[in-house]
Amino acid sequence: MSAREDFLTRRWLVVLLILLVAAIIILASLRLWPSSLPDTSQITPTSEEDPYTPERLKMVSETIEARGVKNPAVLEAMLSVPRHRFVPEEFLGQAYEDHPLPIGYGQTISQPYIVAWMTELLELQPGDRVLEIGTGSGYQAAILAALGDIEVYSIEIIPELADSAAEHLASLGYSDVKVKQGDGYYGWPEYAPFNAIIVTAAPDHLPAPLAAQLAENGRLVIPIGPPGFFQSLWKFYLDDGELKAINLGGVAFVPFTGPGVEQHAETPSPIP
């Protein structure tokens, strides 16, 4: 081999070596690159995150669980239902504070602790049928529905609130909640008996039709007292055909309105 041929051979060997090294680097980088990327499928865009989640967590921890509500299903429902979606826009900053808020037509959305406490008192079990009197914003109905495998029926006397609550509940995914406009004093006999009844406005006596629509071992949670003053929260339960009652202490609710409660204002309550 001549000196020129030897030089050309060496030069090609150098070129091939350089190309080989470059190929190795490229292949290595291609192999390592995917493993260095984060798994974006597990990342929720910031714009879609619920900015109220920390406030809701604080609400449940500090104003509900800390005050004695222990039912895991109730706590989970209070964590999952976005209360800020049920309050007027001007009160969004107070959505997770522990007090009632006005929703128009002289009505309020109850304070979170009361909602959780009354829900726990119902002692709901999977498959139970529950009647709510006073749909209001729909928040209490959403909490009941969030418990899972619960039939929820709700009556609201104010037509505008009944319509808006039904639409709002459906838009948030609680489409199984049945809402009707009417006088809650008379309950909903078409779907009776109910395993539980919750009343979110205060009459001055226990409406007899509601007591009559309780199933055996059913529970009825209701504030009773004169309008404009503090009332007492009562838990009634039907035991072997006998209605029994427990006084749970003072509360404050908007008054129960409608022809039914007005016509029977002098009806004595079956309270021991």
Give a short overview.
The chain has helices spanning 3-32, 53-64, 72-80, 112-121, 139-146, 159-171, 208-212, 259-263; strands spanning 101-104, 107-109, 129-133, 151-156, 178-181, 194-199, 214-224, 231-239, 242-251.
Task: Note the total helix count.
Answer: 8
CATH topology of the largest domain: Rossmann fold
- Give the class from helix and strand content and strand pairing: alpha/beta
Largest sheet: 7 strands, mixed
Relative strand content: 15-25%
State the share of residues found in helices, binned by percent: 25-40%
What would the principal axes of the Cα set say about the shape? globular
Rg:
31 Å
Number of domains: 2
| N-to-C CA distance | 120 Å
Strand order of the largest sheet: 5-4-3-6-7-8-9
Could you name the CATH homologous superfamily of the largest domain? Vaccinia Virus protein VP39
Number of strand elements: 9
Low-confidence stretches: 24-48
Mean pLDDT: 85
